[in-house]
Structures are given as structure tokens and as C-alpha cells.
Design brief:
Layout: H1 24-40, E1 44-45, E2 50-51, H2 54-63, H3 68-78, H4 119-133, H5 135-144, H6 146-149, H7 155-159, H8 165-175, H9 179-190, H10 230-239, H11 255-262, H12 267-275, H13 286-305, H14 318-327, H15 330-336, H16 340-360, H17 368-373, H18 405-412, H19 418-434, H20 464-476
Antiparallel strand pairs: 1-2
């Protein structure tokens, strides 16, 4: 129930993976916990702007088969610190919540954008709007419409801001069919700052789709229907003098400082130019959308797991991880957005985000051969499998007879970090969709001249997703097998100087 007493249904549906495991008990438990989170907690954890990941963690674990008791433990651990719906309205830690000067209504809803104190009021407002108009209409009205983006409102840029957390929150809402979470996600969007408006072109109509001619020597080489692929745009970003990382490297620089420094010296204009090369041919319908989702998931996976250095311990960048985790929700968001024009707008808005995070992480370069060097049968440490009975066909202790996914899923639901669970869920989905793809079939693996867009990309096949999952588990910890929890990399690993320290 929101602060005004209006209540949307707490029910959810099954997630995109559709794995066995959820029961009547677990469904009832997670619906109760999600409602308690909505009623008790602000979208920001504490006063310093970190995000509330509780609903993300619960739903990711639920979709992977976590039982009711484990879901309750996740809730108890992540909600034990004192933080509530009105934390930003208090004068002190224990002070009474200050009353707002005004409540958010239709006539003034853009007045308080970016102010976290108004989150409870925005939650009430968007609960009313969703109840009256439904998810599709409010998405069009409050994220994509000219009214929602003109005069500094910039709701789309708030939606993709905050390391994509508002988009991720909405992704969970529409994936699991929760109108109550839709209102939460809109409220969260409203209290975020607009993300770097200088990187986006929201005023000019998209250019007419451009047809490129490819000298493909193999029919299996796939290209976008129009315009350039993400892998081609990434290659151009690597080759661009303008996109050089800011120097000198500062290991301790905050993300906000890196963003300010990166948004200078022609980079915003170059990011707008490069982003415009990723074109959405709306005439092609669902197949076009499916191809764009595929590009996002392949590119995000290569950036996360292929941006390390050969001979060094793998590092997984914290912000590139968010690009992967957000990509999982794009299919569900596209299904929920009513108009093809707005679907295309969502897709186009992701490219500037990807390119600026690439820049502030030091422009890390993907190494496809490094990704393919990781095992496609990852196993936990200290694994002790019994000798199978002689009647068994095959032996799971032998790599050639072993499917690693059940072991990965069984372990990751106990991971203490929500990001780890979310990353594995994204990689599992990608493996479901593209795991059988042959070498060289990634969209945009080859340029117009038939050359690799990235050295070694011709060898990359659909096994990259299970290989990546193994790297994530090794880096973040197989905690159910006695391995200590690991951590995401925050060094901005694209700079050479970030690698000067020992592993």
C-alpha cells in the first residue's frame, strides 16, 4: 500500500527464464516481501544515493529457483540497516519526517524531478496513474512523450541514468507483470538526475536507415538490416582520436568526476555521431527488435569478460556489468512499450550510455580470443563428486560429459551480492537464446570488406555465455563451495596504469 492508501495488485508472474522451482509457497512469499519493500523502503539506500537492490535480488533469485526460506533470508539481510521510505525527509537519523510543501499531481509533476525527498509523493502519484491508465500508456506518457522530455524534464535520460537502475527496476516490473513495481520504477526515474543530456540527440528525427554493402565470403556472416552494428561502432570508438580516455589516470577518481572530464574535448559530439550509426528499421518489426537485443547481449558480454589482459587474473568492471544486467530487460521492455517509435527510441538511448561508460572506464578493448580461452565447462573449487555407479552412462566428473549450468545456478542463488545473481541470470538467458550460434555469427563480426571488426571475433561462438558465467563465478566467488566472496573491479581497467599493481 502506498502512503495514500491506494494499492495495486501485489501478484507477479513467472520470469523470462521460466525455470522450474517456484511453488505456491515461494510465489506467496516473494509477493509479500516485494510489497513490504515497497511500503517500507526508499529507492535510495541511505542518504548517499546508493540504490535499493532488494527487489532485484529477490526476483532474480526467485526466477532461478530460490526457495521461500532463502528469499526471506535475502530480505532480512538486505533490509537490516535502518532506511525507510522517508529517509530523505528527516532532519536527522531519528528525526520526524518533514512535510512536503506540495504533493505531486498531474499539474505539477515535472516540478520536483530529481529531488529524492519527493519519492514517496511520486510513488503515490504514479500508483494512481498506473491504476487509471495501465502500464503501456503511462510508459508512453511519462517516459517517451515530448511532454515528458521537453523543458528540462528529460524523463528518458533519467530512465537510463543512475547506472541504468531505473530502467532495470522497470524491467523487473514488466517482466514479472507487476503494476505496483511499474509505479515504483516511474517514481525512481523521477527522482534521478537526467543523465548527461549533451550525449543525446532528442530534438532531431532519426536519420533515414542506411543500407551498407558487405563483401561477405560466408553466408553465416550476419549484419544489421540497416546502419552499423554495435561491434562496428565499438571498433570506430576504439579507432577515434576524439574518444581517447582522459589523461592522466587517477585510480581514486569518482565516477562523477570521470563523467565530467569525459564530457569535454569533443567527446559528446563524437558519441552522438557514433550513436546515430546504430539504426532501427521500424519497418522490419519484431525481427529487427530481436536482432538489436542480440547485439546488446553479445556486445555487453564481450565488454564485461573480454576487457581483461592476457596472463592476468580476470577483472570484471562494475559499470560494464550494469550494461549486461540491463540488457536482459530490453526484451520485456520492448514488449511492454506500445508504439514501435518508442521501442526504437529506447534502443537508441542505450548506445550513448554504453559509449560514455566505455570512455570513463578508460576505453577497455575487447579481446575475443581471451573470452574463448576461458573454459566452457566451469566448475566450482573443492568440488567432490562421487564415483557414479557402473550403470551410469557417462561420468559428470569428465568435462566432456558435464553441463555446468545446473551447478552454476545452484550456487549463485546463495551469492551475497545481487549483481552477481543478476549477471548470471542475464548470461543464462543469452545462452538459452544464442548458445548454439556457430563461430563468426555474431551480428557485425565482419566489416563491409569482410574483415574482422575485432581480432579473433571470427572464432567466437555461442559458448561465450557459459564461459563468461564461469568467469563471473570465479571472480565473485562460489560461496557455497567455500570460496570467499569476490568483488567487481572499480579500477577503470581500460587505462594501462590500472594494471600496474599485482593481481
Amino acid at each position: 500500500m502506498t502512503p495514500n492508501g491506494l494499492k495495486l495488485p501485489s501478484t507477479i508472474r513467472q520470469g523470462i527464464l521460466n525455470l522450474p522451482g517456484p511453488t505456491y509457497e515461494t510465489k506467496g512469499t516473494i509477493e509479500r516481501l516485494l510489497e513490504e519493500d515497497r511500503e517500507r523502503h526508499h529507492c535510495f539506500w541511505g542518504r548517499i544515493g546508493f540504490h535499493n537492490h532488494l527487489s532485484h535480488h529477490l526476483l532474480a533469485a526467485y526466477d532461478l529457483g530460490a526457495p521461500a526460506a532463502l528469499l526471506q533470508k535475502i530480505f532480512d539481510v538486505e533490509s537490516k540497516d535502518p532506511w525507510d521510505l522517508f529517509i530523505l525527509n528527516r532532519t536527522g537519523k531519528e528525526g520526524a519526517a518533514e512535510a512536503l510543501e506540495q504533493e505531486v499531481i498531474v499539474e505539477n509533476w515535472t516540478t520536483f524531478l530529481g529531488d529524492g525527498k519527493y519519492y514517496p509523493s511520486y510513488l503515490k502519484f504514479f500508483t494512481r496513474e498506473v491504476a487509471e491508465h495501465g502500464t503501456g500508456r503511462v510508459l508512453e506518457s511519462y517516459i517517451f512523450s515530448p511532454r515528458a522530455n521537453g523543458n528540462g524534464a528529460y524523463m528518458l535520460l533519467r530512465f537510463v541514468g543512475g547506472a541504468l537502475h531505473p530502467l532495470i527496476q522497470m524491467g523487473y516490473a514488466v517482466e514479472f507483470g507487476s503494476d505496483a513495481m511499474v509505479a515504483q520504477a516511474l517514481a525512481q526515474t523521477a527522482v534521478h538526475d537526467a543523465f548527461r543530456p549533451e550525449l543525446f540527440d532528442l530534438t532531431n528525427a532519426p536519420s533515414s536507415p542506411e543500407s551498407l554493402t558487405y563483401k561477405a565470403s560466408d553466408a553465416a556472416q550476419r549484419q544489421p538490416s540497416k546502419g552499423h552494428s554495435l561491434l562496428s561502432i565499438l571498433r570506430q570508438a576504439y579507432d577515434s582520436e576524439t574518444m581517447k580516455p582522459v589523461m592522466p589516470y587517477d585510480r581514486d577518481a569518482l565516477l562523477s568526476a570521470r563523467l565530467r572530464a569525459a564530457c569535454a574535448d569533443g567527446r559528446p559530439e563524437e558519441i552522438r555521431r557514433l550513436s546515430a550509426l546504430w539504426q532501427i528499421d521500424t519497418r522490419c518489426g519484431q525481427p529487427e527488435l530481436d536482432d538489436k537485443v542480440q547485439e546488446l547481449l553479445w556486445t555487453a558480454t564481450l565488454l564485461l569478460v573480454g576487457s581483461g589482459r592476457r596472463g592476468r587474473k580476470p577483472r570484471l568492471d562494475f559499470f560494464l556489468m550494469h550494461m549486461l544486467n540491463a540488457s536482459l530487460f530490453v526484451p520485456s521492455l520492448l514488449a511492454a512499450i506500445p508504439t514501435m517509435e518508442s521501442k526504437a527510441t529506447l534502443l537508441r538511448s542505450l548506445v550513448p550510455v554504453l559509449l560514455i561508460y566505455l570512455t570513463v572506464r578508460g576505453r577497455p578493448r575487447i579481446d575475443p580470443e581471451l573470452v574463448m580461452s576461458y573454459t566452457d565447462t566451469p566448475r566450482p573449487p573443492n568440488e567432490q563428486l562421487p564415483e557414479p555407479d557402473k550403470s551410469a552412462i557417462g561420468n559428470p566428473r569428465d568435462a566432456v560429459d558435464f553441463n555446468p549450468w545446473p551447478t552454476i545456478i545452484a550456487s549463485v542463488v546463495y551469492a551475497p551480492d545481487a549483481h552477481t545473481v543478476k549477471a548470471i541470470r542475464a548470461l543464462y538467458y543469452a545462452a538459452q537464446k544464442y548458445g548454439r550460434n556457430p563461430p563468426g555469427s555474431a551480428i557485425g563480426a565482419f566489416d563491409t570488406e569482410g574483415r574482422e571488426t575485432h581480432a579473433g571475433i571470427a572464432k567466437v561462438d555461442g559458448s561465450i555465455f557459459v564461459r563468461a558465467a564461469g568467469v563471473v563465478m570465479d571472480a565473485l566467488g562460489w560461496v557455497t563451495h567455500g570460496q570467499k566472496e569476490g568483488s567487481w573491479d572499480r579500477s577503470a581497467l581500460g587505462w594501462d596504469d590500472a594494471w600496474k599493481n599485482e593481481d
